[in-house]
Amino acid sequence: MLANSAVHRSFQEFGESGEKHGADVGAYVIMPDHIHLFVSLDEAETLSAWMKSLKNSLSKTLRGQNVSAPHWQKGFFDHVLRSDESYSQKWEYVRENPARAGLAKSWEEWPYRGEIWQLEYRK
Question: Is this structure's pTM higher than 0.70?
Answer without folding.
Answer: yes
